[in-house]
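Researcher: Quick one. two chains, 457 residues in total.
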Amino acid sequence: MDKRIQSPDAGIKQIPDGATILMGGFGLCGIPENLIAAVRRKGIKDLTIVSNNAGVDDFGIGILLQNRQVKKMVSTYVGENRLFEQLVFKGELQIELNPQGTLAERLRAGGAGIPAFYTPTGYGTVVAEGKETRDFDGRMFVLERAIRGQFAFIKAWKGDRWGNLVYRKTAANFNPMMATAADYVIAEVEQLVELGEIDPNQVHTPGIYINAIFQGSSYEKRIEQRKTRSAEEG
Amino acid sequence: MGLSQDQKYERIASRIARELRDGYYVNLGIGIPTQVANFVPRGMDVILQSENGMLGIGPYPTESEVDADLINAGKETVTELKGTCYFSSADSFAMVRGEHIDLTVLGALQVDEKGNLANWAIPGKMLKGMGGAMDLVAGAKRVFIAMEHATRDNAPKIVKKCTLPLTGVEVVDYIVTELGVIHVTPEGLLLTELAPDTTVEYVQSVTEPKILLPPQGPASMLL
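Model:
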């Protein structure tokens, strides 16, 4: 078994216009840079993208917005992207905002064979409008549906040819759930290693979820809010 | 009121920090809430949770420590501590909804006398999203609001009924402003502490609903 592919372009060849793609990342941290760039190159359009954020104006998912390749975003927070706001107000982009924990759980459920679940989050707010609610032990909950994608783009730190993945620090975020919740899952990694090099105790995403894997080239890993202290502050 | 904005923020953050206890797991929102971290008493272990998948947020990095894979919920670079751990967003919000977070501190656009909170949207003006705020107010054991008492034009932010889109229904426990501390009770808003440089009358003048007072009057705000 060998899930390795030569390039991001090979991975996205089968993605049609109008597809739904899950994309890992929080802000610009842990985003599938190489796969996003390949989608931009190929010009696939009318996409529905499920991602916590929408990148910034000129990086991450922002480059797909610039090129008007996105029809709809399913996100939790889009405050870092001015173009995004303009496109929504002009009616050129649809947005479905979810509470962050609800989005994470909808994806987890989608990958785990759970069609829907009750959550206390959002009861009595606009996100509960039109949804079933139910009293459990005196408290009200909202029924939320699972999400699945046709494709998922995953960014990990290390991976092997069976698709076992290890994430690094806060770059895991939405990647582990998204890796379980799509029909065809492509992982890009910073280091593609030999089988056995990853300690089996340390695998975060088991290879069963992954369909294709490649080592990304030249990660920019841009930082949104660079905050530092001087060395004297200790 | 002679306080600068920074002094107001400092007062609010330091007062909320007095609620912290050794071993607390705490989630701080963006803005004034983040500053609470600056007032954690020395020697006290307060573990800060970051919704993007981290327990044990350390200080900002030095230039050489900056790591693009290590950020907080405000997308700022941070560091790890001895004992830090990382996890997925699903695990992060299991902690939040599952009532494992002892205290959360959030900002607000409006809070009303029932403890309803609006802090994520202004229709037609501001399109950002709720991020993790709706989950935090639904699941944290105690919800503190850290905000300036009124708007820049002195319009009340503490109102009879929120008019902006809600973040949660009957979720706020305490409101801390530069003027004092308000406990949200079933009877209404109880002014438990009053800042030394203001009066009950002034607080009432910038608060829309009727303010309730404890039998012995409000205590002096802990500063």
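Chain A has a mean pLDDT of 96.
Researcher: Thanks, that's what I needed.
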